[in-house]
Amino acid sequence: MSTVSADSDGSITLSGGWYYLDQSKNVSASISLSGSEDIHLILGDGYELLTPMIQSEQDSTASLTIYAQSSGNSVGKITLEGDSLSCDMTVTGDITINGGDITVSGDAAMITSNGDITINNGNISLSNQNGGPAYIQSQGSSVTINGGQITVNSQYQQSGIICGNNGTITLGYTNADDFIQAAHYLAGSSATTPIIASEDIFVDDSNNKYSGTLAAGSIDGKKLVPLSITVKFEANNGTGTMSDQTIVYGIPKTLTENAFNRDDYIFENWNTGTNGDGDSYEDKEEIKCESNDVGKTLTLYAQWLRPITYILNGGTNSSSNP
Fold this sequence. Notes:
The protein has 322 residues and is mainly beta. Helices cover 0% and strands 45% of the residues. The chain has strands at residues 2-3, 12-14, 17-21, 25-26, 31-33, 39-43, 48-51, 53-56, 64-67, 77-81, 86-91, 95-106, 108-113, 117-128, 134-138, 143-145, 149-153, 160-163, 169-171, 179-182, 185-187, 190-191, 195-196, 202-203, 209-210, 223-226, 228-234, 245-248, 253-254, 266-271, 280-281, 286-287, 297-305. The chain folds into 2 domains: 2-226, no CATH class; 228-305. The chain has a 17-stranded mixed β-sheet that branches. A 9-stranded mixed β-sheet has the order 2-5-8-11-13-15-18-21-22, with no helix packed on it. It is built from no helices and 33 strands. The mean pLDDT is 91.
């Protein structure tokens, strides 16, 4: 594995192989991708690669895969920006993004590929200056978003998420905090029908649900988030604190382990009623979000048992005693 390093003239060229960004770099010229072998770029925690462009050389057919943490204060970054410039990541082969914070901002802001574009995670933001376009575009194939926080902002008509004329746009999620917001969804220059990934359901700010194949234009400009429920935990005469838990549709989770206490009592289970007259849930029980749980909050109250001590004093305990 090689570190990302500049040539004597300050330029950076990446050819086939693995590269590691081990310190922040500010590159005034574009970063070139060369050759036909796949290029793998790992963004070290807390480091930023700042440049106006990442572009394939004319005869390059290499694909680019980017790796980094998906979230956190120390996530690796790629920032493509410049004054009065078209700022872009243009790759002849496929583009795959597996985390990181990638920001593209310029008179035109673009992530483009002649092959497929796959985003598995990360915070991806594209915004234009001075009225130009901003888009994630697979010029000849498909765009697949499996997770991440994706924003493509522009009022320019040919902006948003764009696939090839015979390609598809598939939208999905991996985590509760994932979202997608794009100005338009296009195949070439025409509106297309995005596909929500199988087993996923998105909702917008008005709690409208989206699944399967969508009508063209139905989600233009809307912020889509995973359908989820919020679980709140109440001590119910106990002490301590517990954070809310989010359960996303299609991704079952076990309930957070009880952290409440109550003097002279033992924790029995959870219940939707304070007096135990609702639905019961065991500690760390697996639960899931249902397709009709739009905007639902599930409040669970700790249920407590007070132990009973019998002093038999030579007698025999009755089986009818609790």
